[in-house]
Write a structure and sequence with these properties.
Helix content is 0%, strand content 48%. It is built from no helices and 16 strands. β13 and β14 form a beta hairpin.
Length: 192
């Protein structure tokens, strides 16, 4: 015969006190939540299998290690630990030209044989994003820097421009996870 859970307790970090409980010793079960931890954002969801603590909306400050302890009627308690990693996308990438002007759509016009320097910048995000330049699905520049404010920069240098770069599309791609789509900003090269 399967044992019956009588209470579910959730703990955050190293805290010895639970921040959430679901007590089945009372008819219909009773939920309790420490308002200082999640406020009204946490709810124990019994409609899923296994029942789970749902937090909505998740905030960056929620990143932590959580423990769930289930006490049973007859058997020993069981504890599970999970680390919640909260991903924060970076800001959309902004491209600037040699003069520092923001480029939207197309850069230039540039002379054949000339040089192009485009700077792609993004800020924020957790974890810190990677920033690469892509052309025709292929990475053409992947060296980026991160400054003390968390701004990520990648410079695209194109020297000795040839006519085959007319209307060539270069995409600056910011990504910091494999769950959401990368943030792309595309610039085409205009030549005279």
């Amino acid at each position: 015969m399967a044992d019956v859970a009588i209470i579910v307790l959730w703990y955050r970090g190293a805290s010895p006190a639970p921040f959430y409980s679901y007590d089945l010793r009372q008819s219909g079960g009773r939920h309790w939540s420490d308002e200082t931890v999640f406020g009204q954002r946490a709810q124990f969801d019994l409609r899923v299998n296994p029942p789970s603590l749902r937090v909505h909306p998740v905030r960056p400050a929620d990143q932590d290690t959580y423990r769930c302890r289930v006490d049973y009627e007859r058997g020993p308690s069981r504890t599970s630990t999970v680390h919640l990693a909260v991903i924060v996308p970076p800001s959309p990438a902004v491209v600037t030209d040699e003069s520092g002007s923001v480029v939207e759509g197309s850069a230039g016009p540039y002379l054949e044989g000339g040089r192009v320097v485009l700077t792609c910048k993004t800020i924020g995000g957790r974890p810190s994003p990677t920033l690469v330049w892509v052309r025709d699905g292929r990475v053409v520049e992947d060296s980026y820097t991160v400054d003390h404010r968390g701004q990520v920069r990648n410079l695209l240098h194109l020297d000795n421009l040839s006519r085959d770069l007319l209307d060539a599309a270069f995409t600056c791609r910011a990504t910091n996870n494999n769950i959401t789509r990368p943030l792309d900003t595309t610039v085409t090269i205009n030549m005279t």
